Amino acid sequence: MFNLLFNDPFTFILLVIPLLYSIIIHELAHGWVAYIMGDATAKNMGRLTLNPLSHLDPIGTLALFIAGFGWAKPVPVNTYALRNSRFGFIFVAAAGIIANMIFAFLALLVLRLLSPAVGTPAATFLYFLAHINIILAAFNLIPIPPLDGSRILTAFLPPHMQYQLRRIEPYGFIIIVVLLFTKVLNPVIDLFRNVILSLINLLFGLVKFIF
Questions:
Q1: pLDDT tens figures, 17-34
Q2: What is the pLDDT of residues 58-109, one digit of tens each?
Q3: How far is Cα 209 from Cα 184, in angstroms, rounded to an integer?
């Protein structure tokens, strides 16, 4: 990413802006759904905003520039304040993934409707926006704490297995980084990516049928 900044700053901006806001939208979705489900923690802490300063994590932002992937500060959620804590927790955990899928769908829809010439700033921006959101959604489906996939999985596990999954959470980030750099997670991400693309194609079919 740093090389891209110096060699092609325009493309760097086209890449960083959608990546940055895709991460922010992901966290914002968690907070909004938690608020709808009865937990005002994120709202009271000023996290229900698109202001990057409210969401950016210094290390996660640095990783974004160095490695091309990063993270924002997790939105705080009080599960005890959620209506129907079990299913409320599932909805909150899935919200970020669904938000990224919706953004990917909308970007691809605009790309199809406007059909901008390949290589133009509009086409490049929309392509990056769709691609980044699909990858973010696929990545967060991985069932390793603290990723959203593990939160969703936890809600369906018996208590003793929930406990075992939570025990590895302090080491989850290290595990994820190691598995990413050794490319062990590539087939899993590709699988989730293909599932997401299939769902998006179904949405395109539905939109075409309606209109």
A1: 888 888 899 999 999 999
A2: 877 777 666 656 678 888 999 889 988 778 889 999 999 999 999 999 999 9
A3: 39
37: region left, alpha or beta (phi > 0 left; psi from -120 to 50 alpha): alpha
Contacts of 127 (CB under 8 A, 6+ apart): 107, 111
Q: What is the DSSP letter of 115?
A: -
**Active-site residue (options: 20, 21, 27, 145):** 27
- Model's pTM, two decimal places? 0.89
Sequence ranges of the domains in the chain: 2-210
Of residues 170, 210, 173, 185, the one with CA closest to residue 70:
173
Positive/negative CA dihedral, 45, 48, 53, 56: positive
Q: Is the dihedral of CA 50, 56, 60, 65 positive or negative?
A: positive
Tokens of 139: 């990545």
Structure tokens of 132? 């980044």
Give the span between the Cα atoms of 123 and 111, in whole angstroms.
Answer: 7
Q: Is 27 a catalytic residue?
A: yes
52-to-13, 57, 71, 144 alpha-carbon distances in Å: 15, 10, 12, 26
**What is the rounded distance in angstroms from the CA atom of residue 137 to the CA atom of residue 132?**
9
Q: At which residue do the structure tokens 């086409």 appear?
A: 123
Residues near 14 by beta carbon (within 8 Å), at least 6 away in sequence: 121, 124, 125, 128
Burial class for 59, CB neighbours closer than 10 Å (0-12, 13-18, 19+)? exposed
Q: Which residue type occupies 91?
A: F
